[in-house]
Every structure is written in structure tokens, then in C-alpha cells.
Amino acid sequence: MATNPNAPVAFTRDQLDWLPWVEPVAEEALTPRQVEALVDAARAKSPYFRLLARDPDALEHRTRTDKDIFYNTDAGAPRADRELAAAAVSRFNGCIYCASVHARFAATYAKREADVDRLLVEGVGADLGEHWNAVVAAAVALTSIPMTFGPEHVARLRAVGMDDLAIADVIQSAAFFNWANRLMLSLGEPAAKG
Amino acid sequence: MTTSETDVIDALVGIAPGSPLDAVRARRPAARTHAQASYRALLTPAEPGDFTIAERFAVAAYVAGLHREAATAAHYAAGLAVHGGAALAATVEQAVAETRAEGPKGRYPAGPLSVEDTEPPAFALSTPVAAALGPKLAAALAHAHYLVFHPRDAAPERFQPLYAAGWTADTIVSLSQLVSFLAFQIRVVAGLAVLRAAG
User: What is the complex's ipTM, to 2 decimals?
Assistant: First the structure.
């Protein structure tokens, strides 16, 4: 449970801080290999990435996997759909911090703030129209244990016009947030910006 | 990296070179390469430090078993038999059987989300399984169980049993990355397998 007085108690699109529970590497103590593993030098300011820098190889490959799944613009699912999958997984697992970041991105890329807010408030059962409902249902089915993702989810995504590359993007985006949520949730906590 | 290295996701899904899904994965080349590099970094690092390869495969076989995805679970069970021995593999298989549950569950910070709170699944190993694992691995499996099934029950106190069993800040990060990476890899395999079967 959260230990800071500014911990958010609801899902939000607001910018949040993240406070580590395990000591990050101090910025001035980062080794050249750890700096390289941050991929973006600006991440030396982030306690989250300096904490993950304790295992630089795992951090670097996590980050490069993440960037290709979300930022590769060569066809496939639109960025908004990938971000929606990330936000839906975060909402379903209960990662308030991750949901805030990717709800902001989904809302920005799709220009659909009201729908994104409905997802945050009502949860993954919110009615967002068939295209987004299909994406959320697929993301949730992949996140549940046992997983319930099946041919009906593929058929539903195809029915809204997604090809196999776009469907693979939804699968990888949802899968990746099962990775990200567990790190952000367990290694620290969110705080409203003071 | 050697060119002969098998891509674990491709192998578990059954993606043949030149197949339609091979072409789909080739459009996200960095995700493919670095998912595999993550596997290598977390399961078979050149310098495993205080988190041995056998311990890594024990955690992985446990996490994969909890997800009930046959192909991936078999891969890690076989890896554990190679790196940790048949006895440890049998012990981990029993730990999976004793602690299998459903997710995601857990509680939110008190407030409007409390109506969504669900009871977290219990983690209780039998005495012989806990004894065979030893305190360090038993603590790791307890932490993995919470990360797999109810990560929103996060709290800083959850690290105390790990520290007490010999885990350090560095190896806690590696353990957290391993469990969390597996949550990704297992789902990519499951999702792409459905897509492959859909033709």
C-alpha cells in the first residue's frame, strides 16, 4: 500500500510522480554501461530507470522492446490503439501510474478524451464503440490468468478492419504492459505532483 | 549473439521461416530481437551474480506453470531440469500445483476504487516443498506469486522477506524483471499462437 500522503486513490490522466521503494543508483554513480542501458540520456533524471539500471542488460533490452512495440510507425495498429491496449491492461491490473501515462497518450493520439476517461472511471467494461471495445476485450483476455484470448478475439479485431500486423501490435502492446505494470506497481508508488 | 540462437517466442508459437507470422514479426524487428535478448539477459546472463542460472530457471518454471500455457511451461520446466536438476524441477512443479490461482486480483488504496477490491489468492507451500526449495527460492516464489496474480497489492514491506532470505537490491531488480518479462513473453506466445491458428 502507498506510503505517501499524495498517493492517488483513483485513476487519472494527470501527470504523476513515482517514488521508488528500492534505492535507485545515484545519478553521479551511474557506470558507463548503466548510462548506455538507459538508452535516452535524459532518463538519468528518472528514479525508476536508475533503479532498473541495477540490471543494465535487462533494462536496455526492455526499453528497446518497448520502443519498437509502441513507436514503430511502419503500418500496423495506429498509435492510439496501441496506447489504448496499454491503458486497458493497466486499468485491469490496477496500475494507477501506468494507466495515467498511457491514458494521456491514447487520449492525445485519438483525440477522444471522454472515451478514455470512461475507461478510467468505469473500467474495462466501458462502452467505447466497437473498434475500441474489440481492442480492450483482446487486451483484457490476454491479461487474465488463465488467459481467455481466443479465435473470437481475433475475429472481432478483423471485423473492425485490423490486419494481422495490427492484431500482433495489440497483442504485443497488451503483453508489454503486463511487464511494465508489474515493475511500476511493485518497485515504488505514484504520488500526485506537489 | 550467435546467428544460430533459437528465438524462443518463434519456437514456442511454431513460426516457420517464410510463414505469414514470420513476416509479421519481421515488421517489428527490434521487438523481436530485444525480446530474445531480454530472455538471454534474464535467464542465461554471462555474469549471473548472486542469482544463479538454476534459480532463474526455477523462478521461470514456477511463473510459466502458474500461467497454465502448456508449451511455455514445458520449455521452462525442461530448462530447469537442465540447469537445476530433475529434483528441483519436480519440486517446482509441485509448488505450482500447490499455489495455482486466478488473476488479476487485489486491493486498491482506500477510496472510490475500494468497491473493486478482490481477495488476493493465498500462497502456502507444503512443508516438504518449502524445505526442498530452501529459504531463498521459497521467498522468490512467494514474491513471484504476488507479482503474477495480485500486483496491485504492492507494498514496500513485501521486500523484507526477500532481504531476510539473502536477496539484495540488485538481485531484487533482476528477479522483478524476470517475473515481469515472463508475464510479457508468455502472453506474446499465447496471443500469436491464437493468431497463427486463426490462419
Answer: 0.98
Over residues B11-44, the pLDDT tens digits come to: 999 999 999 999 999 999 999 999 999 999 999 9
Q: Is B135 left (phi over 0), alpha (psi -120 to 50) or beta?
A: alpha
> Which residue range forms the structural domain that includes residue A31?
16-70+187-192
Q: Are residues A129 and A64 in the same domain?
A: no
**Rounded to whole angstroms, how far apart are CA atoms B137 and B119?**
25
Mapped onto helix, strand or coil, the DSSP state of residue A192 is strand
Hey, what's the cell of A6? Answer: 499524495
A 174-193 residues with CB below 8 A of B? 174-176, 178-183, 185-187, 189
Q: pLDDT, tens digit, for every residue of A29-49? A: 999 999 999 999 999 999 999
What residue of B is the nearest CA neighbor of A164? B24
CA A193, chain centre distance (Å): 20
Asked if B191 lies within 8 A of A51 by C-beta distance, the reply is no
- pLDDT tens, position by position, B74-100: 999 999 999 999 999 999 999 999 999
Domains and CATH numbers, chain B: 8-198 (1.20.1290)
* Tally of domains in chain A: 2
